[in-house]
């Protein structure tokens, strides 16, 4: 009957009223598509009208009314406007009245409760029910512990419960104590669901806390943990406790960063974003809060004209001439350099006064005394060969005693470079790992296995911290804002850990000792900002060996982290380093990352997350350093570049570092040129040099992405090496490398922004020369290369990725963007050079950490400006660079290839920088060079790597964490229960008591045929087979009759 396509409401009403029960099973078992089709044709209104007509009579016919209620519950559950429709039809108060008159009839009461629950999905409908004392009726349906009518009690779960918290808690306690056989798990779970509903608002959460709800839930949960069958109750209770723990402001005087910096053209007072002291009680506030916690609101570009047309430059052509100085290979006097080398070796062989390590120094002396280009300022060429007197200090004694043997690292050179680095607080102390250097540990480090239910364990510890304060110390042991507490806290217990972070790249704002071996750590926001807290790097000392210490970083902002998927922080031990093991190593157990109950001090709607991990130190009284990832400082970069400059053979390799511009704090942003020297000054060789394509590489625009610097280190060292592949690349290309676009952010330990509190990788569209000088001048330099016909063949910006594994590329493609965005533009006729895939495909072949399937080529725009703002998109669109990429390197490790299950170390990151260089051979004019016998033996490709293919997985993000990172506003569903199955089970269940009550209520005996008729209406599935047989028999009769008529 229901499957017939009838359009009129009258037909629906008549059909529902007269014959709902015989065909109800068709719709009760129908698909969502059928039910939604029914709703679109006015089915909800028809059912409501039928309900009103059938329920208004003095003695309703429940043989029709009960299946009608079942059907209305299932259909209304899928109709978003069912509450409003019920109010218009007058069905809300009617169903409440039916419930009042059927509280003694469990099956009828259950059916009424379902419908009320469906109606209450509308706020106005829920209010209407509440105003008419519906809550009183429903609340009294929940008895103390009982063994009868469990099926009905379970359904007391309406969406409008907003009170009676104390009574609900006592009921839950009563059922928990007396349900020793665990026969009423569904009822106990439903009570927890009611508590979830009533704690949606702040008043409800406060009421639950004031009535001892947290303590009750904690105690009952500890008992439930003893039985595996009560996991659903444990999860619901844990989520409820997490949600109801009172919001605790961070113990800070202000959310604003400790570091402030006066910006040019702006007042010293910085405006801080997203500050809102209003507290909202509705779920919409939760959604807004989550939306604001996202990193950025980006979307795909769908305008074909914007994708294909190149916009005009953002500055006059005359301003581009200043960047000619950044192409020294075009005007350098190579003859003078060659003469210097000859003179050098002549003196060396004649007198032996000069060692091999002094050769670059002599060469630089001759080159820099040559003919510099006109207009070049003295400070634009980086020549740090200054006489320095090294006194016999503690540093010298330390080096003499222990010796440092880190390749491409000199502690004294680092000390000299750091002395010229400018920071906001004026750092005067060096972190030992940066000064001494780092060697990769000898073996690979596997991802750490997640301990089962570790997050639940940590949440219980946090709940205990709220309930029992006897063992809580709550003592500040480090405060970056307090100059006295910064170095030593006089009030700290003598056995507490000591913290320190006032050094380059360091980030730790405050450390609070919670218990004897537990510490809360608060990170400093980005300078001139109150946002972006993720990176940490600090010193810790005064530890006791073989004792587990728990560290809680409580103000992380990202919604998920690779710390949930096997990643560990890194640790550097000074004692281990002095004993010959200067390694940053992965460390930590019991690691998890989850949402907490902390909030900003100023009421800003930001969700904080806790990174918790446990560390057991090896040595007493050691000095250790802990970091989010392997640190790489700006001073390390300067020292490294100087070491490289001293290591190259200037007769073969042209290496020049220059200052692109100054940063906001006055630190030089360096640009490096690397290429091969011409074989001679002959016109042909010089012309070949000038015609070499440019490869532009940038990195570290986001300060916390130190993995990008390690990849860049691998690139620089390889390009400066004597490797035959590197030599071929230098002969084929000119490399322009800006290894650190955000030196100020790196120096001051920020997570994402520069000192202007802006993400520099979102400033590429229209960079401000005063506030974003490094981006402005990098873009200007790219414009200049484009204007002189030297548009880069490849542009790649090195980044780190905190939520994905492996290494991968983001590129730009018109077709793929239009496909993914669902644009109506016909892409069949669009022609696009597929060359943007050449490098990713090559890397997939040769780089074990690279994943081709993680790459994408979508053009992203920033919704705030409706324009492309990232480096790769702007360079692709405005400069016409086909191969414009962002290379993302994981903080964690790989889930494919030969590194599967292993965390990435500095060795693997530097290898990735080398492999990226290898992939550039695929762009050389002579493609055979890639596979020539001369080069293939030097690319270090064993059989396993050559056969490496990325895993077949196209999902961008990790699978859901095994434990809920967020705490849900709703109760976790009980397995195997939903409204549809509950309705079906209610219809299928026998209830002899109700049948007996029905007989007494009707005041007389019921004939066998009447009982059969009633049973058929209440339990249509029992007569389904008989109906089908009767229907088939009837059809056969019709067929025989029809055939006999035909024969006649």
From TrEMBL:
GO MF annotation list: metallocarboxypeptidase activity; zinc ion binding
Protein name in the entry: tubulin-glutamate carboxypeptidase
The entry's keywords: Carboxypeptidase, Hydrolase, Protease
Gene Ontology terms: cellular component: cytosol
GO BP: any one term: proteolysis
Species per Swiss-Prot/TrEMBL record: Lates calcarifer
Family per similarity comment: Belongs to the peptidase M14 family.
Start and end residues of each Peptidase M14 domain: 630-924
Known EC number: 3.4.17.24
């Amino acid at each position: 009957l229901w499957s017939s396509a009838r359009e009129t409401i009258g037909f629906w009403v008549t059909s529902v009223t007269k014959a709902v029960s015989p065909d109800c099973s068709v719709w009760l078992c129908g698909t969502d598509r059928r039910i939604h089709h029914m709703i679109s044709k006015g089915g909800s209104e028809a059912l409501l009208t039928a309900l009103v007509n059938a329920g208004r009579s003095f003695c309703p016919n429940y043989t029709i009314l009960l299946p009608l209620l079942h059907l209305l519950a299932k259909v209304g559950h899928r109709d978003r406007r069912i509450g409003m429709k019920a109010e218009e039809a007058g069905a809300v108060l009617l169903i409440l009245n039916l419930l009042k008159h059927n509280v003694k009839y469990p099956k009828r009461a259950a059916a009424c409760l379902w419908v009320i629950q469906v109606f209450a999905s509308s706020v106005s409908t829920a209010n209407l029910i509440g105003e008419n004392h519906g809550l009183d009726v429903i609340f009294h349906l929940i008895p103390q512990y009982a063994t009868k009518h469990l099926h009905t009690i379970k359904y007391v779960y309406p969406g409008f419960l907003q009170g009676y918290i104390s009574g609900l808690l006592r009921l839950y306690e009563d059922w928990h104590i007396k349900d020793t056989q665990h026969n009423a798990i569904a009822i106990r779970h439903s009570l927890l669901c009611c508590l979830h509903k009533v704690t949606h608002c702040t008043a409800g959460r406060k009421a639950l806390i004031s009535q001892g709800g947290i303590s009750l839930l904690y105690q009952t949960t500890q008992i439930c943990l003893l039985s595996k069958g009560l996991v659903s109750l444990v999860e619901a209770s844990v989520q409820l406790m997490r949600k109801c723990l009172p919001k605790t402001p961070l113990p800070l005087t202000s959310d604003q960063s400790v570091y402030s910096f006066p910006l040019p053209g702006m007042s010293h007072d910085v405006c801080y974003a997203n500050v809102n002291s209003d507290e909202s009680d509705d779920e919409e506030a939760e959604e807004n809060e989550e939306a604001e916690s996202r990193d950025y609101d980006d979307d795909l570009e769908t305008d074909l004209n914007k994708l294909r047309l190149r916009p005009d430059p953002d500055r006059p052509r005359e301003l581009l001439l200043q960047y000619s100085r950044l192409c020294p290979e075009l005007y350098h006097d190579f003859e003078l350099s060659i003469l210097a080398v000859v003179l050098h070796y002549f003196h060396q062989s004649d007198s032996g006064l000069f060692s091999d390590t002094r050769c670059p120094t002599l060469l630089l002396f001759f080159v820099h005394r040559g003919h510099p280009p006109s207009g070049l300022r003295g400070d634009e060429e980086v020549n740090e060969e200054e006489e320095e007197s090294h006194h016999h200090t503690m540093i010298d004694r330390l080096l003499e005693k222990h010796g440092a043997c880190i390749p491409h690292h000199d502690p004294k050179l680092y000390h000299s470079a750091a002395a010229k680095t400018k920071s906001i607080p004026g750092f005067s102390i060096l972190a030992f790992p940066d000064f001494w250097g780092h060697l990769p540990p000898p073996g690979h480090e596997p991802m750490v296995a997640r301990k089962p239910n570790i997050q639940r364990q940590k949440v219980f510890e946090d709940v205990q911290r709220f309930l029992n304060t006897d063992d809580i110390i709550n003592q500040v042991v480090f405060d970056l804002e307090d100059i006295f507490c910064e170095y030593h806290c006089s009030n700290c217990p003598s056995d507490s850990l000591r913290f320190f972070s006032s050094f380059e790249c360091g980030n730790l704002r405050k450390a609070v000792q919670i218990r004897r071996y537990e510490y809360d750590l608060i990170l400093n926001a980005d300078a001139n900002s109150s946002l972006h807290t993720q990176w940490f790097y600090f010193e810790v000392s005064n530890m006791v060996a073989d004792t587990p210490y728990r560290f809680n970083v409580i103000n992380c902002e990202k919604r998920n982290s690779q710390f949930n998927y096997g990643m560990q922080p890194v640790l550097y031990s000074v004692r281990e380093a002095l004993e010959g093991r200067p390694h940053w190593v992965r460390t930590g157990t019991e690691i998890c990352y989850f949402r907490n109950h902390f909030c900003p001090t100023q009421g800003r709607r930001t969700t904080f997350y806790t990174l918790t991990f446990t560390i057991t130190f090896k040595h007493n009284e050691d000095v250790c350093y802990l970091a989010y990832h392997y640190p790489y400082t700006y001073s390390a970069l300067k020292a490294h570049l100087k070491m490289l400059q001293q290591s190259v053979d200037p007769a073969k390799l042209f290496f020049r570092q220059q200052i692109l511009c100054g940063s906001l704090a006055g630190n030089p942003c360096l640009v490096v040129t690397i290429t091969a020297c011409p074989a001679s000054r002959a016109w042909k060789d010089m012309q070949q040099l000038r015609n070499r394509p440019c490869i532009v590489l940038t990195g570290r625009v986001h300060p916390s992405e130190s993995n990008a610097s390690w990849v860049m280190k691998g690139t620089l060292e390889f390009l400066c090496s004597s490797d035959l592949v590197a030599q071929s690349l230098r002969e084929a290309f000119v490399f322009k490398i800006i290894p650190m676009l955000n030196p100020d952010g790196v120096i001051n330990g920020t997570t994402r922004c520069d000192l202007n509190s802006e993400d520099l990788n979102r400033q590429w569209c229209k960079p401000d020369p005063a506030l974003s000088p490094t981006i402005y001048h990098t873009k200007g330099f790219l414009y200049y290369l484009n204007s002189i016909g030297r548009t880069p063949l490849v542009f790649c910006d090195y980044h780190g990725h905190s939520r994905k594994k492996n290494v991968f590329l983001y590129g730009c493609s018109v077709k793929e963007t239009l496909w993914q965005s669902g644009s109506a533009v016909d892409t069949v006729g669009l022609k696009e050079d597929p060359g943007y895939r050449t490098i990713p495909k090559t890397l997939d072949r040769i780089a074990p950490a690279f994943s081709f399937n993680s790459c994408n080529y979508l053009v992203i725009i920033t919704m705030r400006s409706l324009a492309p703002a990232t480096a790769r998109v702007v360079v692709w669109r405005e400069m016409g660079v086909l191969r414009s990429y962002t290379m993302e390197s994981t903080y964690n490790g790989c889930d494919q290839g030969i590194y599967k299950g292993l965390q990435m170390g500095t060795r693997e990151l530097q290898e990735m920088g080398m492999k990226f260089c290898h992939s550039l051979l695929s762009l050389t004019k002579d493609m055979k060079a890639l596979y020539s016998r001369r080069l293939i033996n030097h690319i270090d490709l064993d059989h396993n790597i050559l056969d490496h293919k990325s895993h077949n997985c196209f999902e961008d993000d990790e699978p859901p964490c095994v434990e809920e990172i967020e705490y849900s506003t709703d109760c976790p569903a009980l397995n195997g229960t939903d409204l549809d199955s509950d309705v079906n089970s209610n219809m299928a269940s026998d209830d002899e008591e109700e049948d007996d009550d029905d007989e007494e209520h009707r005041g007389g005996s019921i004939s066998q045929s009447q009982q059969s008729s009633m049973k058929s209406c209440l339990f249509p599935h029992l007569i389904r087979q008989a109906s089908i047989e009767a229907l088939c028999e009837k059809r056969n009769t019709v067929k025989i009759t029809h055939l006999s008529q035909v024969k006649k």
